[in-house]
Amino acid sequence: MAFFLQKSSLANHFRSSSQKIDGSMAVPSRAFHVEPGAREKALLAEDPSLRRFKSHKKGVARVKRIGDVLTIVVVAGCCYEIYVKAVMREEARNKAKAAGRE
Q: Where are the domains of the chain?
């Protein structure tokens, strides 16, 4: 059996894939930090002609707050609807039991 495993292509495949994994573990997966060049710095610099298109911080914060409040209101409404349905179902079940006993 050991002879068969040494000669089979399947064993070679597993052996080569395990060697690839071991080899890749030796090389770090993250590259070293390199300072940006002149072109990258120019692209990242603030452009005065685009300044009027930037959103204002107060406006963005207000819209974010409104979105958060609306999300909370919708979730609370859904929870309330689920609660009301459960209570109504329980009342109907109790009414049916009472009608069945009489």
A: 55-102
CA distance 59 to 63: 6
The DSSP line for 21-51 is HHHHHHS-SSPPP----HHHHHHHSPPGGGG
Distances (CA, A) of 16 to 21, 23, 25, 70: 9, 10, 14, 56
pTM value > 0.85: no
Q: Enter the tokens of residue 30.
A: 């993250």
Which of helix, strand or coil describes residue 102?
A: coil
Per-residue pLDDT 10s for the chain (102 aa) are: 455 555 566 566 666 555 555 445 555 566 778 888 999 998 888 888 877 777 667 888 899 999 999 999 999 999 999 999 999 999 999 999 988 876
